[in-house]
């Protein structure tokens, strides 16, 4: 009986709406050999470079370390995680990933992706059914058009956003119920779910809800008093949603103020961002490719049946003129938002997006399909004069695209002709009279929409390449094996560095304390600091690929993973394909090789100079003033290290001269650093070779300014290509020699352009003996950590000298709270970056606990919302019983 109730004549359209888009997309993924059905995967762009690692962190947190929900030392050298959860990981679909460890996580991503397609169709079908807008075969027609819209296809690689398409129809259903019944619980409930699931997309849903309220107020107009009541309930529903989700939103707000709000510049341009006619090209199938990701037009493709229905809405006499004006104004506002800078910025919360422009375009596709669903009646028939007008508008749009094909590289003539055919068939189908066998015409319409949306998905996604399952799986296995080998041998707190990189979130993927990271909620103090000490950095990203002996010691890089070179060249070539080396580090010769941890993929080294997470240091560091980003990174390293050790009179670093400089097809210059060199013969390659012969076994470094990147030149060390992370926006330090006494070292630069600026190009020598003395002095008073979790560290320290502090390399945050010998002590912010704790001379027990800022106020606000809601329902129930 229960099964019959689930599968009956009322529910089968819902099931079809769920399964049809799911099956269509599954079929395409099988065709593309996506895991588990082949050798490829769904990993591409941010999905492969960011999300998959965060999904691994999600599994680790839920299964092994719940404290990492608040803070993680796998987020570079440490960072708040609530903002990461709020943006990336709060989707309930992520629970599927718990069943897919390691390299099999790509299968979990596959399942999540197709389920989100299906749930988008189901949610829209639910909206159509509960509002009695459509029934029967017409329900899956419009739900499929919605679930497989161009935005969904183009952004499936941004899996974290796709939940929105399933939640938006339910929020709109809540608004419909608000106007029809006066009840706000459905609206407030699903808006709360949206804000918790992804606050960023939730912001866009809120903006669209405001527009929809204007539409609904026109649609259900009674009188001015009723409208005011509805407005008050709408506002209260939105406020209640914010209260119920405040436990997550308030800490996230703080995280954003420390991250994205600081390093994204928002300069408003009061003009159109491109010629508006280009939006017409997005109604051609396959109008999406890789170039559209960083900068392009909104992805708004939907089935032509729905487009025609939307046009006919304005021609139909069944809708009052005021409603048509309302729909027209909202449509115009949305279209203007797609091309006018200030409105675009408004939809993106006053922060222009980095890649994936017009992320809010899903609301426009929803809007078009929803209006079309209310227009096309059960008979799916329109009048001839309406068809003629629609034909004229469609023809004008497609002809405009055809005449400007050279200006829209993502559209080709073949796809344009297919689009013309789909539009023509859709128009003919709607014009045909359907007196007999109406159900057959409806089935044909469903097949037409399914074909339309499938062709667009195939044509669009065929333009995108994906990471192979082997490439991801082999690297993941190698990293996990090496990290687990270290962790089984050493259970203490330490950080691990490496000379190879798949993504900047490798530490999150393999659950170890590292120094790399990439996310949208990355505290700006870390990229600023890393850039200042010669590491590649950017907005929301750092890569610890250029560590020196000084920074390895300071940041507690106790272990280093280095690629093991296979003996056979064929194996080495294959190995390079999935374990790319991104760091040249001769300094590893100064570290002890851990033979017991060596495997076929990587060799582990232990750093004898690592200082630990905290150590006793001279309190002069509290007053040291350094610029946040500018200056010589090597000189800054020396200043910081020697100040901490109180050995400022003992120099660690000295600038060295090259013994010989050879110019090949390059005009000679006398001064190297800061010079601009030019080719002699522009048609030939220009190269410069810098040679020096070390007189000691000390470490040598060459600094390269941000102009000296692989886009401008190729770099070679002793005839071999320099292994270096390719992008950086500040001067970096490259380790070029160590233990090379009497051996000639050659650093080569091959120009890629006619001229090259030798920006901040300097050779430095580190006095290894003096460095070791400073390291040993700083190691005299270690903070010996006895207990540690992701958000709480307890240890002991013996301060042996006056005027010392506990210096840590924990990134400063108002969320860190210190207790010394059981008593609260205020922390200090050192060199714009780290936590320090003032201590008196003697032995102390120091505990650092992390509590996300604004978490307590958020919990209080959510508690008030929950208690108030329960009390309201209790009062209403009592009134009914009375």
TrEMBL record:
Keywords: Membrane, Transmembrane, Transmembrane helix
Pfam families: YfhO (PF09586)
Keyword DNA-binding attached: no
InterPro entries for the chain: Uncharacterised_YfhO (IPR018580)
Record has Membrane as a keyword: yes
Transmembrane regions listed in the UniProt entry: 12-31, 85-103, 109-129, 136-153, 159-175, 187-214, 234-257, 300-316, 323-343, 355-372, 384-403, 409-432, 439-459, 854-875
Protein name: YfhO family protein
Organism: Lactiplantibacillus dongliensis
């Amino acid at each position: 009986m229960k099964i019959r109730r689930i599968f009956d004549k009322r529910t089968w359209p819902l099931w079809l709406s769920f399964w049809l888009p799911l099956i269509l997309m599954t079929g395409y993924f099988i065709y593309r050999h996506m895991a588990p059905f082949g050798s490829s995967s769904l990993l591409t762009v941010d999905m492969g470079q960011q999300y998959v690692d965060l999904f691994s962190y999600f599994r680790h947190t839920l299964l092994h370390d719940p404290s990492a929900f608040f803070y993680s030392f796998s987020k570079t050298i440490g960072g708040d995680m609530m903002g990461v959860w709020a943006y990336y990981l709060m989707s309930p679909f992520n629970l599927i990933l718990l069943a897919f460890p390691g390299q099999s996580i790509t299968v979990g991503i596959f399942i999540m992706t197709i389920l989100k397609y299906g749930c988008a169709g189901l949610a829209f079908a639910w909206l159509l059914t509960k509002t009695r807008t459509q029934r029967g075969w017409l329900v899956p027609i419009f739900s499929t058009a919605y679930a497989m819209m161009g935005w969904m296809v183009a952004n499936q690689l941004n899996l974290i956003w796709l939940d929105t398409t399933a939640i938006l129809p339910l929020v709109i259903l809540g608004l419909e119920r608000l106007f029809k019944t006066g009840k706000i619980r459905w609206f407030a409930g699903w808006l709360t779910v949206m804000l918790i699931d992804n606050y960023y997309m939730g912001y866009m849903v809120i903006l669209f809800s405001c527009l929809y309220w204007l539409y609904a107020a026109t649609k259900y107009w009674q009188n001015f008093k009723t409208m005011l009541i509805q407005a008050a309930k709408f506002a209260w529903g939105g406020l209640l949603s914010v209260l119920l989700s405040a436990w997550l939103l308030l800490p996230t707000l703080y995280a954003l103020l420390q991250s994205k709000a600081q390093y994204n510049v928002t300069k408003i341009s009061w003009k159109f961002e491109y010629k508006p006619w280009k939006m017409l090209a997005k109604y051609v199938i396959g109008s999406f490719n890789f170039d559209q990701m960083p900068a392009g037009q909104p992805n708004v493709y939907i089935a032509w049946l729905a487009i025609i229905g939307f046009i006919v809405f304005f021609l139909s006499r069944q809708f009052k003129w005021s409603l048509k004006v309302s729909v027209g104004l909202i449509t115009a506002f949305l279209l203007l938002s797609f091309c006018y800078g200030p409105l675009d910025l408004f939809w993106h919360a006053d922060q222009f997006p980095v890649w994936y422009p017009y992320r809010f375009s899903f609301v426009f596709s929803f809007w078009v399909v929803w209006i079309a669903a209310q227009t096309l009646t059960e008979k799916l028939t329109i009048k001839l004069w309406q068809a003629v007008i629609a034909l004229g508008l469609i023809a004008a749009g497609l002809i405009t695209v055809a005449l400007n094909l050279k200006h829209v590289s993502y559209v080709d003539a073949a796809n344009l002709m297919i689009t013309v055919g789909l539009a023509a068939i859709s128009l003919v189908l709607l014009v045909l009279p359907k007196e007999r066998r109406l159900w057959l015409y409806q089935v044909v319409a469903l097949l037409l929409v399914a074909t339309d949306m499938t062709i667009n998905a195939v044509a669009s996604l065929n333009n995108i390449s994906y990471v192979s399952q082997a490439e991801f799986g082999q690297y993941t296995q190698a990293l996990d094996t090496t990290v687990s080998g270290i962790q089984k041998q050493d259970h203490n707190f330490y950080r691990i560095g490496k000379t190879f990189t798949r993504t900047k979130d490798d530490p999150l993927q393999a659950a170890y304390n590292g120094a790399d990271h990439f996310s949208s909620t990355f505290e700006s103090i870390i990229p600023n600091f890393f850039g200042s000490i010669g590491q590649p950095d950017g907005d929301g990203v750092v890569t610890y690929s250029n560590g020196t002996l000084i920074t390895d010691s300071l940041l507690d890089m106790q272990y280093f993973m280095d690629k093991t070179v296979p003996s056979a060249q064929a194996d080495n070539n294959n190995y390079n394909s999935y374990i790319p080396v991104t760091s040249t580090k001769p300094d590893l010769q100064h570290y002890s090789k851990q033979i017991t941890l060596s495997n076929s993929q990587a060799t582990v080294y232990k750093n004898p100079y690592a200082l630990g997470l905290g150590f006793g240091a001279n309190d002069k560091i509290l007053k040291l003033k350094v610029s946040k980003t500018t200056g010589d990174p090597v000189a800054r390293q020396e200043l910081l290290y020697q100040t901490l050790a109180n050995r400022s009179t003992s120099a660690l670093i000295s600038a060295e001269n090259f013994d010989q400089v050879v110019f090949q097809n390059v005009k000679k210059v006398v001064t190297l650093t800061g010079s601009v060199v030019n080719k002699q013969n522009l048609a030939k390659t220009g190269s410069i070779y810098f040679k020096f012969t070390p007189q000691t076994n000390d470490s040598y470094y060459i600094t390269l300014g941000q102009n000296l990147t692989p886009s401008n030149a190729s770099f070679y060390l002793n005839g071999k290509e320099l292994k270096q992370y390719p992008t950086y926006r500040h001067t970096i330090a490259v380790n070029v020699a160590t233990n090379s006494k009497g051996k000639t070292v050659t650093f080569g630069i091959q120009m890629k352009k006619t001229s090259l600026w030798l920006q901040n190009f300097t050779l430095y020598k580190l006095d290894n003996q003096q460095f070791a003395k400073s390291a040993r002095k700083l190691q005299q008073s270690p903070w010996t950590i006895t207990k540690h979790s992701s958000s709480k560290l307890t240890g002991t320290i013996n301060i042996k000298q006056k005027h010392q502090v506990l210096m840590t390399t924990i990134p400063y945050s108002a969320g860190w709270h210190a207790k010394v010998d059981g008593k609260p002590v205020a922390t200090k912010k050192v060199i714009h970056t780290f936590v320090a704790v003032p201590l008196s001379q003697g032995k102390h027990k120091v505990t650092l606990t992390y509590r996300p800022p604004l978490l307590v106020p958020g919990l209080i606000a959510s508690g008030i919302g929950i208690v108030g809601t329960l009390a309201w329902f209790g009062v209403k129930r009592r009134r009914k019983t009375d």
